[in-house]
Design brief:
Blueprint: E1 15-16, E2 43-47, E3 50-53, E4 60-66, H1 71-89, E5 94-100, H2 107-114, H3 122-131, H4 133-140, H5 145-152, H6 156-167, H7 169-175, H8 180-186, H9 189-204, E6 210-211, E7 213-216, E8 219-220, H10 228-237
Parallel strand pairs: 1-6, 4-5
Antiparallel strand pairs: 2-3, 3-5, 4-7, 7-8
Helix pairs in contact: 2-6
Amino acid sequence: MRSFLALFALLALAACGGGDSNTTQPPVATTTAPAGKPWTDVYTSTGDGWVKQGNPDAPIKLIEYGSRSCPVCGAFAATGTEPLREKYIKTGQVSWEFRDFLVHAQDPGIALLGRCVATDAFFPVLDAMYANQTAFNQKLTTLDEATYQQMGRMPALDQAKAFNDFLGYTELMKQNGLSDQQMAQCLTQPKLDVLSAQLKEAADTKKVSGTPTFFINDVQAPQNTVSWEQLEVLLRRAGAH
């Protein structure tokens, strides 16, 4: 991808594709989900737009910092989310929280839309965005340089809206039940300010520099842990089974 919003230009230098413990923990207990639903249908708001899937008291807490437009994150979504849910979230051993980390020009608008849904729709919308990521990214390559430069000179919110409309994310959200009015209420300066503050905190405090970046029980996975095979080793080391 080319450059992204100047607001975030100094924060995600390693961009798309980026604490370690070698101690193996005892196996954690599995937990029965509430009557009538599996743990994979339990969603908990963790504040400021983030949502956790699974047992909110799971002994193993996985946090992913990801970009919805990052192909490496898309590859993890395509290969990792199903076994993660089936083997570890559904058994109550692991909860999964997704946090946006912006690395491309289109990410601010996409992230604001992704958070513009009810708590129980957060992960289904995230799944839909990743399922359509290749088509959205290919659409970006059809944007001519003059238009791209023009969009780059827009105020941040106008630029976010322009990318959403051009790439097709606006239409995707309409298919998921959001009206133009609801989306307008999410694409606001205060919400963008919250998102940019979260990005800065992740970069400064958590030392997140690229996507995907995983934390297991608040310990950052080794750099370049990007595949499901790599992550599962770490989950099992933390006691998942």
